[in-house]
């Protein structure tokens, strides 16, 4: 992989892009207001970064990070992401996103909802449980004592393996939670959501997590 694109260039989109640039990737940022509104962020990221429309960014990325408020997921164009490895960093905050019945009833995980919208994308959940600003600062070389781990989940094994490799190049171990249906183990308000943990700690905590009742 050489190019990471982002749909959403806010806290998460920008900080994953920053970490990717540090690791030697090219990045393409996009948002809802258009590439001209991203000039300052592109300048901050330097030569490896550019901005584009959502459709152009989707086409350019070997992987595409989707990091938007969940209520905007319906506006992300599924047609532009057919066959793409899509990293889903999104979380459900009812006070921001309004109530979504399928999530309130635990009929779906957040990532299953994203997959239902982006039908032909290869969704891998990652980066949803780390504070955005820590993404470019917390990475360490493989094998470092106390290396931080991030959870991944996905139904496409090859896509998930590629995202695990990407995380490694950014300086993080990975803990595989299994398919998207198991990704509730790292959703908002779970014990693994937020704190820094090693792979052993995160695996232990997520295995013992009980599903949150949303309502
Ligand atoms: N902040 C964190 O530390 C953190 C950590 C983990 C996960 N998350 C999750 O990651 C997601 C993004 O959070 P954030 O903090 O990065 O949000 P944010 O700072 O508010 O940024 C949201 C980004 O999404 C873009 N956007 C909104 N609607 C769009 C659309 N229809 N098409 C394309 N881009 C669109 C916005 O662009 P415009 O400004 O042009 O509208 C903006 O660049 C959320 O689901 C959040 O829960 C956040």
Explain this structure.
It is a single chain. This protein is an alpha/beta fold and 215 residues long. The protein has one domain: NAD(P)-binding Rossmann-like Domain (Rossmann fold, 3-Layer(aba) Sandwich). Helix content is 30%, strand content 16%. It has eight helices and eight strands. Strands 3-2-1-4-5-6-7-8 form an eight-stranded mixed beta sheet, sandwiched between helices. The radius of gyration is 16 Å and the shape is globular. The N and C termini lie far apart (41 Å). The model has no long low-confidence stretch (mean pLDDT 97).
What general outline do the C-alpha atoms trace?
globular
CATH class: Alpha Beta
Quickly give the structural class.
Answer: alpha/beta
CATH topology: Rossmann fold
Ligands, ions, cofactors? NADP nicotinamide-adenine-dinucleotide phosphate
If helices are DSSP runs of H or I spanning 4 or more residues, what is the number of helices?
8
**β-sheet strand percentage:** 15-25%
């Amino acid at each position: 992989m050489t190019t990471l694109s982002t749909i959403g260039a806010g806290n998460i989109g920008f900080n994953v892009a920053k970490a990717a640039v540090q690791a030697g990737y090219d990045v393409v940022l996009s948002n809802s207001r258009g590439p001209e509104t991203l000039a300052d962020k592109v300048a901050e990221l330097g030569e490896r970064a550019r901005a584009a429309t959502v459709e152009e960014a989707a086409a350019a990325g070997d992987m595409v990070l989707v990091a938007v408020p969940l209520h905007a997921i319906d506006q992300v164009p599924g047609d532009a992401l057919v066959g793409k490895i899509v990293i889903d960093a999104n979380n459900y905050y009812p006070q921001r996103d309004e109530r979504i019945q399928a999530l309130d009833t635990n009929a779906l995980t957040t990532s299953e909802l994203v997959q239902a919208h982006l039908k032909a994308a290869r969704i891998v959940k990652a980066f949803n449980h780390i504070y955005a600003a820590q993404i470019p600062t917390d990475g360490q070389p493989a094998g470092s004592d106390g290396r931080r781990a991030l959870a991944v989940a996905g139904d496409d094994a090859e896509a998930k393996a590629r995202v695990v490799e990407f995380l490694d190049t950014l300086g993080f171990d990975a803990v595989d939670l299994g398919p998207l249906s198991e990704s509730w183990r790292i959703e908002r308000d779970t014990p693994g959501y937020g704190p820094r943990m090693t792979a052993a700690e995160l695996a232990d905590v997520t295995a013992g997590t009980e599903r949150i009742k949303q309502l």
